[in-house]
Amino acid sequence: MSLPTPARLLAAVLCAVGLLASPAARAQSSLIQNAPARRVLSLNGSWNYIIDPYENGFYDYRREAFDQSKSGKGGYYDNQKPSNAQEPELIEYDFDHSAALQVPGDWNSQDPKLLYYEGTIWYKKSFKMAPAAGKRYFLYFGAINYEAHVYLNGKKLGMHRGGFTPLQFEVTGQLNSGDNFVVVKADNTRHLDAVPTINTDWWNYGGITRDVFIAEAPGTFIKDYEVQLAKNDPTTLMGYVQLNGPAKSGQTVTLNIAEAGLKQTLKTDTAGRATFRMPAKKLSLWSPQSPKLYAVTLTNGGEVVQDKIGFRTIATRGQDILLNGKSAFMRGISIHDENPLIPGRTRGEGDLRMLLTWAKELGCNYVRLAHYPHNETMLKLADEMGLMVWAEVPVYWTIAWENQATYQNAETQLSDLISMGKNRASIVVWSVGNETPLGDPRLKFMTNLVKKARALDDTRLVAAALELHRTPDNVIHVDDPLGEYLDLTSFNEYAGWYWGGMPGEITKYKFDIKYNKPVFISEFGGDALAGYHGDANTRWSEEYQEALYVNQLKMLGTIPGLRGMTPWILADFRATRRQHPVYQNGFNRKGLISSTGTKKKAFYVLQEYYRQQAAKYNGK
Ligand code: GCB
């Protein structure tokens, strides 16, 4: 037995408090890495649904949950057929004769009576399959908003909270050869202690909003892996492979990046894990100008997992953001996971590609995927199309800072996001929240999230969209104490819309920014109804928004450390709080592109500014 040396003890303590991010401390999660790339049976398509505002399919008339009863039966998840005169049992629901919703897709945009619906909807999908002996199976949902109870063939698999991260259940041994059915109780009721909380500025779209599939894997399989450059070192590849299953220890795993001539055979330890660190001097680095991705192949016996991975470094030095060691300007735009043309949540690669193509047209090299984890496909597309990404968790406005369960929920969402995105070169920033109010409990909550993000991934920047305050001398102060812990001084700034007078008046403001870090404007903007015209002082007109952008860019140009921005927002989006009957009509109209896909005048202002910035920073 070897006794712990003082150095080992210190390392263990530092690891425990998250200060030393060893490869072993990097993002691990129960989720299968790159699950969509495994051998899958898609369960997308038509799912029958039952609207259940009183939750009669979940609770009996004494409000006892059926799935907690002795028999575990009685809920809609039994998927019983309705009774007829010959049958003794009364059944008052029937999935097969109920209407259907398309999955993936929110329910609000698929049936007019569901536009504002908040509550429970039951989904059912029947499918046939032939599970193979010796294989393992995982039922995987890209996202369900917000609380999901999942049942397979009448048996409960589990429950998940959080509307934007994947959920997965092992179903080995629970699948029939032949007919099967999955039932989901999806509930988008808002809660004070949830993440996000009850108050947001986006639509509370409910339902199974992302892909559903069953993934097949061998008995012992490659569950998780990371293949990235070491921190600030473009010539060293590092990461790990994690096997899961009875034969996980002492296995041989091969990592092959054929195009780069890199191949290594790894041996797993008793925990099924193999870490590596190897020289990689000839890699072409990923950047928006040249979004080079390498085919990466991991092999474990007969199992082959393939990914396309890019390699780049990201760091800050003083007020510079260094991409692959060179100063870059982040020409960004904020994006919601919504297709304004549906309007509703994006439903597939086409929708996602449309949004990112608009961003490219604008001249962006960067997107802020606000305010919650976006689709895994979006992250892969950003890799492919050459857009850096700010990825975020829905710690938004005022949540229950002192509630331990709320913190745990936020931390889990952050961990799952980092696990899902850790191999994507596009992601350069983890954002732990947006416009959170000053105060001690909040500072503790947020700094714990920052520590967690750094412990899981020490190679990317950590940020949050902060707030500012003004003094009567027209000075905008940015001094939120959370800024101390972040890599960017990133803040939202709404001069010319929520305060500061007309667009022409805002250039009088000067900035007083406390931290010597790259300055990043995570939001600015104002509403304009596309096609509504007036002058630069006519609120809601395209000309007002245009003047606001012209003057914002003038004003922001006075900040020496300005290294990027993600104005609010690419496209108009649905927001319940936006009630103006003429100009808003349930939409936040700060989009540079309208809800029918037309570009507003301000689009071209930002496009020209980005053209100049790209020239100045040599296109990076
Ligand atoms: C903000 C929020 C964003 C809102 C935006 C607005 O500061 O971060 O979610 O939609 O302002 O339009 O007010």
Topology of this protein?
Blueprint: H1 6-16, E1 39-42, E2 45-51, E3 100-103, E4 120-129, E5 135-141, E6 144-145, E7 147-152, E8 155-161, E9 167-170, E10 178-187, E11 207-208, E12 212-218, E13 221-230, E14 233-244, E15 252-257, E16 262-267, E17 273-279, E18 294-300, E19 303-309, E20 314-317, E21 320-323, E22 326-328, E23 330-335, E24 338-339, E25 344-345, H2 349-362, E26 366-369, H3 376-385, E27 388-392, H4 404-421, E28 427-434, H5 440-456, E29 461-465, E30 469-471, E31 475-478, E32 489-492, E33 510-513, E34 519-523, H6 542-556, E35 562-565, E36 573-574, E37 587-588, H7 601-616
Parallel strand pairs: 23-26, 23-35, 26-27, 27-28, 28-29, 31-33, 32-34, 34-35
Antiparallel strand pairs: 1-12, 2-3, 2-4, 4-10, 5-9, 5-12, 6-11, 7-8, 7-10, 13-14, 14-17, 15-16, 15-18, 18-19, 20-21, 21-22, 24-25, 30-31, 36-37
Helix pairs in contact: 2-3, 4-5, 6-7
The structure holds (2S,3S,4S,5R)-3,4,5-trihydroxy-6-oxo-oxane-2-carboxylic acid.
Keywords:
disordered N terminus; 7 helices; binds (2S,3S,4S,5R)-3,4,5-trihydroxy-6-oxo-oxane-2-carboxylic acid; single chain; 620 residues; alpha+beta
Short synopsis of the structure:
This protein has 620 residues and is of the alpha+beta class. 16% of the residues lie in helices and 32% in strands. The site of (2S,3S,4S,5R)-3,4,5-trihydroxy-6-oxo-oxane-2-carboxylic acid has 9 residues, from loops.
